[in-house]
Design goal:
about 50 residues, two-stranded antiparallel ribbon, binds zinc ion
């Protein structure tokens, strides 16, 4: 489960391999399995994840 700074939570999976995506402050959202990075805007507050 990803959790944004505003408190919004989202269960997001990698489109390539299906692994649950993680968030690192330095990297942003990424897949721990295949390394794919995802740019996402929070659905609640509209800021970058
Ligand atoms: Zn992946
Ligand atoms: Zn947010």
């Amino acid at each position: 489960m990803l959790r944004h700074e505003c408190g919004y939570e989202l269960d997001l999976r990698c489109r390539q391999c299906g692994a649950t995506l993680l968030h690192e402050p330095r990297l942003g959202i990424f897949c721990p399995s295949c390394g794919r990075r995802v740019t996402l805007v929070c659905h609640r507050c509209g800021k970058k994840w």
